[in-house]
Amino acid sequence: MKSAVSLKTLLLDNDPTGAKLIELGNKVIKVFMIPRSRLDEHNNRPDLQQSGLYFLVGKEEESQEDAVYVGIATNLAKRFGQHKKDERKAFWRVVIACTTRDDSLSTSATNYLERSCVILAQQAGRMKVHNISTPVTAPISEIDRAEIDDYLQDVRTVLAVFGFTFLEQPVNAGAKDKAVYYCKGPGADARGKLIDEGFVVLTGSLLRTTQVESTSVYLTRKLEELLAQGVVERTSDQQAKFLKDVVFESPSAASSIVLGRSSNGWTQWKDDKGKTLSENER
User: Fold this and answer.
1) Rounded to whole angstroms, how far apart are CA atoms 77 and 82?
2) 141-170: per-residue pLDDT in tens?
């Protein structure tokens, strides 16, 4: 059994929906979660004038799909002020800033963290990643890498506790006790599992890429995003294959992407005996 760890949260606005400061046990990490609407109230804090890693998190205006941007700065507050005025990144609603109690993150450390987080977010496939390219970093020593990886794990722990799982692979997608469900249609032949975080479509599943005219903007954009990120790959003009497990927020979101049209995933996903997900799980 792993040792327990304490997590302390300070509500900076005395409001659970407002700005938060989080510390993890006796670790050096400090994490701020600040709504965009309250950034001006907190951006003059001395501990936000430090270097650090940050995430801009929100939803795309038109498609309403979840999105994240990963960045680093030598002065977090100054960078946040710039982002607030940048119309190209108008999607974000909360900024998550990761720094330390003693301002000890070096340039090489933040570069390494940025690259690692971009890769993790792309691999997880949970949100649209606004970073256009994967950052390149200079070589670091084995000892430094071990320390930075430890800090990165602390970042991931804090994010996950507060429901930000965009760096995480689905924890039980490969669990043997999870029943496999099938969704089939013209050009579609997919396998998936109902998991704690939604519904995961499994590697090797085939989806239809020609969508009906009534397909929502969200489904069209989601397919474009999966193709752009290399999560799915075209096998023909009308079909593509999942190259990795992909988590969707619901069975219906998963079946709709697979079938190329809006659908009820609770009835579209069926086990090997033909029983629907709804019959088995509801």
Assistant:
1) 9
2) 999 999 999 999 999 999 999 999 999 986
Q: What is the full DSSP assignment across 95-158?
A: EEEEEETT----HHHHHHHHHHHHHHHHHH-SSEE--SSPPP-----HHHHHHHHHHHHHHHHH
Per-domain residue ranges of the chain: 7-161, 181-281
Q: What angle do CA 168, 209, 166 make, to 5 degrees?
A: 10
pTM of the entire structure? 0.72
Q: Residues 256, 257, 263, CA angle at the centre, nearest 5°?
A: 5
Q: Measured between alpha carbons, how far is residue 119 from residues 167, 168, 176, 198 in Å?
A: 9, 11, 27, 22
What's the pLDDT tens digit per position in 64-117? Answer: 778 999 999 999 999 999 999 988 888 999 999 999 999 999 999 999 999 999
